Amino acid sequence: MTNLPLTPVNPDAPARRAAMPPRHLADFDLAGRQALAEELGEPRFRARQVSTHYFGRLVRDPEQMTDLPSATREKLAGQLLPTLLTPVRELACDDGATHKALWRLHDGSLVESVLMGYPDRVTVCLSSQAGCGMACPFCATGQAGLTRNLSTAEIVDQAVYLAGVAASGAVAGSPPRLSRVVFMGMGEPLANYNRVVAAIRRLVAPAPEGLGLSQRHITVSTVGLVPAIRRLASEDLPVTLALSLHAPDDELRDELVPVNQRWKVSEVLEAAWEYAAHTRRRVSIEYAMIKDVNDQPWRADLLGRLLAGRLAHVNLIPLNPTPGSRWDASPKPVEREFVRRLRAAGVSTTVRDTRGREIDGACGQLAAAEGQ
C-alpha cells in the first residue's frame, strides 16, 4: 500500500491570502454591510436595500436594482457587488433536473457547483475551495491539489446564482425555491472552517440578511478533520455532518483517505458520535462503492459493527469514474449485497441517486477538463 502525502491542515489559514477576491456584501452580516454603506457615504438603509435585492430577490446585477439612484448603484456595485464568479460552462442533464456550472474566479481558479431538482425539493452542491489538499486518489478534485480557499462570498454567491436558476423555473418538475445546500463540491469544507461557517450563517439568516434556509437542511461534508468536527459541534448550528468514511478499516482508509494517517477510523467516528450527541442530528456516513477495493462482504460486516446502535445513516455512493482513472464503480449485485449486510446489522442504509454522469457530474471533472 502507498501512503499518499498529506497537505498540512489548519482550518483557519487560507492557502494563498494574496489571491483572495475583493470584499462583497455576502462577506458581512447586515450590521457589517450597514457600516460599509456609511463608510461609502451612503445612508445605512442602502445596505438593507441592496441585501433585499441580492438575498430576497436573487438579483446579482446592480443595474437591475432600479429603486437605487444610478450614482448609488455605480458606487455600491464597485464596493459591495464585485463580480466573483464568471461562467465558463453551464450544462444540464436528467431532463433538466440537474444543472452544473463551472466558474472562473478573479484569479483564474476554477470551481464547480451543481443544482439538483427533485419533486419535493431543490438542492445545491457548493464548492468551498478551489481544488483540494486531501489527496483522495479516487477523486478528480483531490488529484488536482489545492489552489486556495474560497471567500465566504464566493461560496454564498454560488448558492444565490443557483437559487435564481431554480426561481426561474428552469429546473424541470421541481419547486421554484432552493431548499437544501450540501457542502460536497470541490474542497474539504472544514479545512476552510471560518469562511464555511460564515457562509452557513448567511444561508440560514432570514432575508434580507441571508437566504433564510433551515439549518437542518444544510449538510457539511468532511473527510474527518477531528478538531474541526468538535469545533463545529459548538457553533450552535445543528447542520448535518456527512463523514466521508469510504473504508471501515485503517489499512485501506490510509490509502483512500490519506488524512486517516493522522486521525484513525476510531478517532473520526468518536468525534462524529460526539457531534451527534451534541446536536441530536444523525450523522451521514458517506461510502463510495469502489469495485474490488472497499466493497467486500467482510467490510460491510465490519462497517455494520462499527455503526450498529449509533445515530447514523449510511449513504452508499456509486462511484462516478473519472477519465483515465483505475477506479470503477462496484457492480450492482455487489452493491445490493453490501446494502443487505448493513441493514441486517440494523444500520439505516440507502444508495445515492446517481446524477450528472453525462455532464461530468463527479466533483472536479469539469474543472479538470477545462484545464487540460
**End-to-end span in angstroms?**
29 Å
Q: Sketch the topology as an H/E string, one letter per element.
A: HHHEEEEEHEHEHEHEHHEHEHEH
Unreliable stretches, pLDDT < 50, 5 or more residues? Answer: 1-18, 368-372
Query: How many helices in DSSP terms?
Result: 12
- Portion of residues in helices? 25-40%
Mean pLDDT equals: 90
Tally of extended strands? 12
Strand content: 15-25%
Q: Please describe the biggest sheet, giving its number of strands, its sense, and whether it closes into a barrel.
A: 10 strands, mixed
- Could you say which structural class the secondary elements and strand pairing correspond to? alpha/beta
In order across it, which strands form the biggest sheet?
Answer: 1-2-3-4-7-8-9-10-11-12
Describe this structure as you would to a colleague.
The protein starts with 29 loop residues before the first helix and ends with a helix. By secondary structure, it is α/β, with parallel strands linked by helices. The strands form two sheets. It has a ten-stranded mixed β-sheet. The protein is 34% helix and 18% strand. The longest helix is centred in the middle third of the chain and has 16 residues.
Topology:
Blueprint: H1 30-39, H2 45-56, H3 70-80, E1 86-93, E2 98-104, E3 110-118, E4 121-125, E5 129-131, H4 140-144, E6 146-149, H5 152-167, E7 180-183, H6 193-204, E8 218-222, H7 226-233, E9 240-244, H8 250-256, H9 265-279, E10 283-289, H10 297-307, E11 312-318, H11 332-344, E12 348-351, H12 365-371
Parallel strand pairs: 4-7, 7-8, 8-9, 9-10, 10-11, 11-12
Antiparallel strand pairs: 1-2, 2-3, 3-4, 5-6
Helix pairs in contact: 1-2, 5-6, 7-9, 10-11
